[in-house]
Amino acid sequence: MRTPHQAPRARTGCDLQRIDDVRVAVRDFGARYLDRVYTPVEQEAGRTGGAPSLAARFAAKEAVLKLIGTADGVDPRSVEIAHEHGRPVVRLSGLAADLAADAGLGPIDVSLSHSGDHALAVAVALQTDHETEPRTHTA
Questions:
Q1: What CATH number does domain 9-127 carry, 3.30.70.260, 3.30.310.10, 3.90.470.20, 3.30.1130.10?
Q2: Fewer Cβ neighbours under 10 Å: the N or C end of the chain?
Q3: Quick one: which residues bind Mg(2+) (predicted)?
């Protein structure tokens, strides 16, 4: 039996990150921290924009994972926050991409901001497919 078409609904995620937490992690752990959390594209943005830029990208990763619905087992580098045409864009790979597809999420839009001590990110996507049975994922 075919189910009636469900209208897309908006899903959101947001996160607030202390800039000093990122600054301290970079100072204390250097490349080990950067390589574990950020893609080369994001690290380049951090070389240009410093800790506020990295903190905004970390907040964006968290916002996207909240939008998807889980961060369990997801490598933070599988949520990449790049920049194209003057705007941040989300690129998903691996488990993050699988989970977003399973949730029926369309393209994810993200907005970043930082001021003073904090960086903020909001992620939004339309959910067009409401899957009832989650698929099993392999890492």
A1: 3.90.470.20
A2: N
A3: 15, 62
